Task: structure prediction
Amino acid sequence: MTTKTPIKAEPMTVEQKEALEANAWRQAMAQLDRAAAKLGMEQFLVERLRHCKRILTVSVPVVMDDGSLKVFEGYRVHHNTDRGPAKGGIRYHHAVSLDEVKALAFWMTMKCAVVELPYGGAKGGVICDPRKMSQAELQRMTRRFTSEIAFFIGPDRDIPAPDVNTNPQTMSWIMDTYSHLVGKATPGVVTGKPIEIGGSRGRVEATGRGVFYIARELSQVEGFDLRQKTVAVQGFGNVGMNAARIFSEHGVKVVGVSDVSGGLYDKKGLDIEAIIKWQKAHGGLIAGYPEAEAVPVDKFVEVVCDILIPAAMENEITQRNAPKIQAKYIIEGANGPTSTEADAILRERGIMVVPDILANAGGVTVSYFEWVQDIQAYFWNEKEINAKLQEIMARSFAEIYEIHKKEKVDMRLAAFMLGLRRLGAAVRLRGVFP
Ligand code: NAD
Result:
């Protein structure tokens, strides 16, 4: 009889470990598994959620300004539509990948369930470097991408919105292209549009404002005065810049901000309006602003502050820097900024993380208001929008905080438990077709 020598698994190299940690889909599935196990969810249901409902890959040929032709790769993913039409942003970034878009779509499914919006989850992305493209090239790419995914989207099917490097202008091009293709003005096909073509008041600031509302709720239940705390915000785009501005307008000291070009720090508090002016005058980047200490981009999350708001990209808080984080609270403005490995370290260290699927849900919430307004062709004022947003954020926070306390679980697990209960009920009720 011959005995087989067992094949010894090679230990993973640091690079292999980091590549695994950086894979957003793997992180998302680890979060799903953890919450499903805690809930004792049926395997069949978990299996359904481990698969995206539909995945579309398109090629997007674009004539560049110099006459050359470039072909970009784009994706639109519907993760789940059991609770309603699919909803989620479109990202333009050189590091877009199908796994990333799938993870972001999954997080949208969870987020819409957490804040009880009648939507499923979607996401889209195009692999490109928008900083190296002209407005005309971006417009041609957006219109061609829209035409390639046109059969996949629609006001009652899948409603895109802005995400990293896309904005109200991008949404205008999508809305216009789609409207031409279907032969009628269809504002409800996208949200995050300018107000002039059916956008909602308060949408641009909604995600940052939602982050602020969450911080306020947190301060009340944890018994601290927000104005006595210091805040650092990573990322100075739609979410980060608006969050920094709104915290600062409410008398909260923002001691740090950063973007791809660099970080800024002042323990006495930064002048956010002055940094916004500097950013506008310097190609949309904040580096070089003279009235603050410069912090390297990759060290920013380690700055001294009470509340850290990652509002840039995924996997910024990793097992490398999690042990060095000085904040007591992390409120996730970005999607997936904390890796599963880092999450465990932060739990161990007693740092509370308010998860993305709750903390940045202000954006999709006001997108929902925009869609409702478009469908009924009746528009609300900003006071009404902000009041409704505040109500939804406060209610969702309270529901999750209660689970966190009652079940003695961290806030991420509590949010996933709430979302999965709602989503699970919908999947069970609808059953399996045929
Ligand atoms: P944006 O393109 O407007 O801004 C992104 C910002 O992050 C820019 O300032 C960029 O310079 C900066 N950045 C990129 N990499 C960085 C790094 N390594 N360190 C520091 N800064 C870095 O994008 P956005 O819409 O603000 O989105 C930011 C995050 O928030 C993403 O995770 C997105 O999915 C999430 N989000 C956005 C919305 C929304 O309404 N726009 C809603 C919910 C969640």
Remarks:
- The pocket of nicotinamide-adenine-dinucleotide is lined by residues 162-165, 207, 234-240, 258-260, 297, 311-313, 316, 333-335, 360, 363 (CB under 6 Å).
- The CA atoms of residues 319 and 342 lie 5 Å apart.
- The chain has a mean pLDDT of 96.
